[in-house]
Every structure is written in C-alpha cells, then in structure tokens.
Amino acid sequence: MKLDEAMLERRSIRGFTREAVPRALLEEIIELAMRAPSSMNTQPWHLHVLTGEPLERVREGNSSRMLAGVPPQREISDHGAYDGPHRERQVEIAKQLFGAMGIAREDKERRQDWVMRGFRQFDAPVSIVVCFDKSLTEKGTIAHFDLGAVTYGLVLAAWSRGLGTVINGQGIMQSPVVREHAQIPDDQVILTCVAMGWPDDSFSANAVRSTRRSVDEVARFVGFD
Ligand SMILES: Cc1cc2nc3c(=O)[nH]c(=O)nc-3n(C[C@H](O)[C@H](O)[C@H](O)COP(=O)(O)O)c2cc1C
Record's family (predicted)? Predict the structure, then answer.
C-alpha cells in the first residue's frame, strides 16, 4: 500500500473480529514504527503488547473501576474538558459515531454502553501500551512528542497490513490496573494504548470518516511571494 493511500484511508477502528493477530506480524509493525524520529534519537519508548488473559484482566479492572466511580488515574496530566473549537470538533466526531451506530441522543443506556466499550478497548484482541522512560519526566514534554510519532507509525504500519487500530486513552484511564496486569516497570510512565485487531466490516462506526480542517485554515505561508 502506498503511504498516501494509508494516510488518507486510515481511520480509527472500534469493532474487531475475534481473529488473533500473529506475534510475527506485530513485531514487523513495531520494527517499522520504530523508524519514527525522536528528539536527539533518544527513542524513549517502551511498548507492552498485550493479548489473552492479561488483556482481559486489564479490561475487567478498568471497566469495573470506572463503573464503581473510581476517578480516572492517568500517569500524565489530564486534558480536562475541551472548550471552543476543540469542543466543537469533539462533539462533531461523537455525533458521527453515534449516528453511524444509530444511537439516539436521549438513549442514555446505549451511550453508556458505547463509553464502556472504550474502557474495554473495544474488545480488540491486542492492546499496545505505550510508555516512556520516567527519567525524562523532568525534561519537559518532548518525550510525548516522540511517543506520538512512534504511535502514528504503529497505526499506519498496521493499517497498511489490513489491521485496524484506535489510539485509546480510555484504555489506560485506570493506569494502576494496566500497570499491575501488564507488569509495567516502575521506571516507565504510561502515556496511552493502541487497541488493534482485524476490522469487523459489519461494525458501522468503522466506516466513519472524521473531518479535517482545511490547509487554508491551518497553515500560514511566510515569504512565498
Ligand atoms: C491521544 C488520543 C487518544 C484517543 N483516545 C480515544 C479514546 O479513548 N476513545 C476513542 O474512541 N477514540 C480515541 N481516540 C481516537 C480519536 O477519537 C480519533 O483519532 C479522532 O476522532 C479522529 O478520527 P480518525 O482516527 O478516525 O481519523 C484517541 C486519539 C488520540 C490521538
């Protein structure tokens, strides 16, 4: 698959088949993603690839704590509620996803069910927990940039092999649970996770194509003419 095609066609996948993902394929994807640039080539990333029983325990712990009202416990600062244009875009994608799934605005039960699916990492057969070296926390936010780059690499490399992904902040909302069942070493910080598997083509939300701002709105060209 050409790079342009992968970048254009990729979208977040939130419904997966039960088919397992071979370890060799995951290793290939990770190897490719790690060609990502990083500050001074520090490569501060650590990837914990979960499947089977440990992933089930993470899903269970994450979901039951959220249901019990345990406040989210992430290891990076919480973005809180979005306002203004960011909130508008958040609402737009939510409307698109709920629309595709036929979930009405007043259908509290199905909306809650959707949120719980997120905490279960959309029942994906694989979850890659993306961490960075804790020693870098005193050096600002540059490691977050590096991890963003490697994560996009993972997502694109997976897509070009027919695998679907969704970067899934909800999946690490209860990070102590992830830390325990994935046995994350104390010298690493959990940033996010990526749910991955074979897309279920009958799952309507998988067809949703999110919008993007125009180049005119985003980019300024200085000194061109
Ligand atoms: C840091 C980050 C965290 C995300 N967390 C979630 C999440 O918890 N649940 C979810 O459904 N999607 C999550 N997403 C996916 C975004 O909603 C999605 O990328 C965005 O709506 C654009 O859609 P697209 O990926 O289909 O282009 C996350 C994306 C990023 C980059």
Answer: Belongs to the nitroreductase family.
In this predicted structure, what is the pLDDT of residue 213?
A: 98
Q: Is the CB of 93 under 6 A from ligand 1?
A: yes
Any idea where the domains of the chain sit in the sequence? 12-77+120-204
Which one of 7, 166, 194 would you pick to mutate in the ligand 1 pocket, going by the greatest count of ligand atoms within 8 A of its CB?
A: 166
CATH classification of 12-77+120-204, choosing from 3.40.50.2000, 3.60.20.10, 3.30.70.100, 3.40.109.10? 3.40.109.10
pLDDT at site 190: 98
CA distance 21 to 65: 28
Dihedral sign for Cα 77, 113, 61, 53, please: negative
Whether the pLDDT of residue 50 is over 90: the answer is yes
Which of 63, 167, 211 best tests ligand 1's pocket when mutated (most atoms within 8 Å of CB)?
Answer: 167
- The arithmetic mean of pLDDT across residues 103-119, rounded, is 97
> In angstroms, what is the span from residue 93 Cα to ligand 1's centroid?
9
Confirm or reject: Cβ of 210 under 6 Å from ligand 1: yes
Answer yes or no: is the C-beta of 118 below 6 A from any ligand 1 atom. Answer: yes
**Which strands make up the sheet holding 164-167, listed edge to edge?**
45-50, 126-133, 188-197, 164-167
The strand pairing partners of 192, in sequence order, are: 130
Rounded to 5°, the CA angle 109-114-117 comes to 125
Confidence of residue 1 (pLDDT cuts 50, 70, 90): confident
Say yes or no: CB of residue 44 within 6 Å of ligand 1.
Answer: no
| Residue 50: strand pairing partners | 127
Predicted confidence (pLDDT) at residue 225 exceeds the cutoff of 90: no
Q: Is the pTM of this model over 0.85?
A: yes
